[in-house]
């Protein structure tokens, strides 16, 4: 199962400008000079203009369990998105603090608008709808969707899932949910990825339509899972900031530029989403 490719962030940047403006519900407290101290390299040059919800910390909101992007290990949140958050915090000269929230509060923009976090890094697909309530960075990852079964359902493709009116698990508020509707699948919504894949293993649903990366991660604990079909989709992941927070957006993009150029982004992706041999 090949790893989805990294996008060309420079070419995609022009397509990611915001399409609507919302009034900010609250003002974030300004950082002290110590909070915005410069780190090493050019990305820190934008940090002096960045206000933080909690001085001295970059607060990152994410879902609690969506491996390999975010998950808890040994009492600590780890994953691709968490490593990305730490890179942004390092360029700001502060520590990263993670806040885990329900995915709906993240993807709706509510967590950012109520100052629960400075940035949302939670495998967020960049969509036109979401860009009306939050601003997105340049993309940091290209995604794919896959249909996975327990290997015993007799379903071998998306077409067969539709024809058999199979119960297909999807994560609420994700591209998988949107694609299931477009494909005419009988979707069963979940708020938590772990519950969704558990239901697949116990027969609660017949299949799951989700990111290939998430499927790969959960398949390691469920060797009976079979990836039946993959689908290339226009799905790029980005870091979200509160609508109109240009200083923070500039800082995030500066960090993304740095880690793409120095190879850090490739190393992070390869650590959490290793290349799978066919």
TrEMBL record:
Which superkingdom, per the lineage?
Answer: Bacteria
Q: Mainly localized where? A: other
Q: Which SUPFAM superfamilies match?
A: Periplasmic binding protein-like II
Question: Which compartments does it reside in?
Answer: Cell envelope
Residue intervals of the Solute-binding protein family 3/N-terminal domain: 57-276
Any Pfam family hit = SBP_bac_3
Q: Which InterPro entries match?
A: SBP_3_CS, Solute-binding_3/MltF_N
Provide the alphabetized UniProt keywords. Answer: Signal
Where is the region Disordered? 27-48
Entry's Gene3D superfamilies? Answer: Periplasmic binding protein-like II
Q: Where is the composition biased (Low complexity)?
A: 27-43
Q: Which CDD domains match?
A: PBP2_peptides_like (cd13530)
Where does the secretion signal sit in this chain?
1-23
One GO cellular component term? cell envelope
Family membership? Belongs to the bacterial solute-binding protein 3 family.
Q: What is this protein called?
A: Basic amino acid ABC transporter substrate-binding protein
Species in which this protein is naturally found: Kocuria dechangensis
């Amino acid at each position: 199962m090949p790893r989805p490719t990294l996008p060309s962030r420079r070419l995609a940047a022009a397509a990611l400008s915001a399409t609507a403006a919302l009034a900010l519900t609250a003002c974030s407290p300004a950082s002290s000079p110590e909070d915005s101290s410069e780190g090493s390299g050019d990305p820190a040059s934008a940090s002096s203009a960045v206000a933080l919800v909690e001085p001295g910390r970059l607060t990152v909101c994410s879902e609690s369990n969506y491996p390999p992007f975010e998950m808890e290990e040994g009492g600590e949140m780890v994953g691709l998105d968490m490593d990305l958050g730490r890179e942004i915090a390092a360029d700001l000269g502060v520590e990263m603090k993670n806040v885990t929230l329900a995915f709906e509060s993240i993807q709706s923009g509510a967590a950012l608008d109520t100052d629960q976090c400075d940035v949302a890094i939670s495998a967020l697909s960049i969509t036109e709808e979401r860009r009306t309530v939050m601003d997105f960075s340049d993309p940091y990852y290209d995604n794919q969707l896959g249909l996975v079964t327990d290997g015993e359902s007799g379903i071998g493709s998306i077409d067969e899932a539709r024809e058999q009116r199979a119960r297909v698990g999807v994560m609420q508020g994700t591209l998988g949910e949107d694609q299931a509707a477009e494909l005419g699948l009988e979707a069963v919504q979940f708020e938590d990825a772990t519950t969704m894949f558990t239901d697949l293993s116990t027969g609660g649903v017949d299949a799951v339509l989700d990111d290939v990366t998430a499927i790969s991660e959960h398949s390691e604990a469920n060797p009976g899972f079979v990836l039946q079909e993959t689908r290339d989709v226009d799905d790029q992941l980005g870091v979200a900031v509160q609508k109109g927070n240009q200083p923070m957006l500039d800082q995030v993009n500066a960090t993304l530029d740095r880690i793409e150029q120095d190879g850090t982004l490739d190393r992070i992706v390869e650590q959490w989403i290793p290349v799978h041999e066919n």
